[in-house]
């Protein structure tokens, strides 16, 4: 009886088509750790100036697969000397179905995929710093959704400015 009710409910429900998304693979594409001023840097008081840079890149592969690469670069300086320099390119291959609407696909590639990759990059950075015998450092969480929203807003403003400029340069008839 329960099977009949469940089957009946499935037949009555509208067939909603869901966009396909799958993580195919997550991997380190490139890792670099440098301590150019060691061992002398270890004798200095540990009050570093930290500089963190992040970037994402993506490219379409075959069969609706996309490679997304999150690059994290962290430099620690003491008295204008580099204590360490870490760069991690954490990458993933993601299947994004062609039935996914373009705005949603752009959000997946620009925000959701980097959000997925960030914990892996964070762990790798912390591990490399630890293996260099430097004090523990954890990257702070990043709101990739907000960054993506700012990027899209900036693109929209640039497109509007270009359209206004083209309209003002058009000859009057």
UniProtKB/TrEMBL annotation:
SUPFAM superfamilies with a match to the protein in the record: SecB-like (SSF54611)
Keywords: Chaperone, Cytoplasm, Protein transport, Translocation, Transport
Subunit and partners: Homotetramer, a dimer of dimers. One homotetramer interacts with 1 SecA dimer.
Pfam families from the UniProt entry: SecB
One annotated GO biological process: protein tetramerization
Family the entry assigns: Belongs to the SecB family.
UniProt cross-references to HAMAP family, sorted A to Z: SecB
Hydrolase as UniProt keyword: no
Protein name: Protein-export protein SecB
Subcellular location: Cytoplasm
Role: One of the proteins required for the normal export of preproteins out of the cell cytoplasm. It is a molecular chaperone that binds to a subset of precursor proteins, maintaining them in a translocation-competent state. It also specifically binds to its receptor SecA.
Molecular function as annotated in GO: unfolded protein binding
Organism annotation: Planctobacterium marinum
Superkingdom of origin: Bacteria
Presence of keyword Transport: yes
GO cellular component: a single term: cytoplasm
């Amino acid at each position: 009886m329960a099977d009949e009710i469940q089957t009946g409910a499935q037949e009555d429900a509208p067939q909603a088509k869901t966009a396909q998304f799958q993580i195919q693979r997550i991997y380190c594409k490139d890792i670099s750790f440098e301590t150019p001023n060691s061992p002398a840097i270890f004798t200095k008081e540990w009050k570093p100036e930290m500089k963190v840079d992040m970037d994402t890149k993506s490219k379409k592969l075959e069969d609706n697969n996309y490679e997304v690469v999150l690059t994290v670069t962290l430099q620690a300086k003491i008295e204008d000397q580099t204590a360490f320099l870490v760069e991690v390119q954490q990458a993933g291959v993601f299947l994004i179905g062609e039935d996914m609407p373009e705005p949603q696909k752009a959000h997946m590639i620009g925000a959701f995929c980097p959000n997925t990759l960030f914990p892996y990059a964070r762990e790798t950075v912390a591990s490399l710093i630890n293996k260099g015998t430097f004090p523990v450092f954890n990257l702070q969480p990043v709101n990739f959704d907000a960054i993506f929203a700012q990027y899209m807003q900036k693109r929209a403003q640039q497109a509007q400015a270009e359209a206004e400029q083209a309209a003002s340069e058009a000859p009057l008839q």
